[in-house]
TrEMBL record:
Native species: Indicator maculatus
The keyword Mitochondrion is annotated on this UniProt entry: yes
Protein name: ATP synthase complex subunit 8
A Pfam family: ATP-synt_8
Keywords noted in UniProt: ATP synthesis, CF(0), Hydrogen ion transport, Ion transport, Membrane, Mitochondrion, Transmembrane, Transmembrane helix, Transport
Taxonomy of the source species: Eukaryota, Metazoa, Chordata, Craniata, Vertebrata
Family, per entry: Belongs to the ATPase protein 8 family.
Main location: mitochondrion
Amino acid sequence: MPQLNPNPWFLIMLLSWLSFSFLIQPKLLSFTSTNLPFNKTSTTIKTSPWTWPWT
């Protein structure tokens, strides 16, 4: 069963994760998001209590 032999695939997996971590990820994180967050003022809504007819 050759799929159980990790010798050729472990190095490929390791190199792919390292390339993602050190090369691709910082480039992706350097982009600015299009919808920047801002502080939204919270509005309080005054609600009146419901009058139940059976109480």
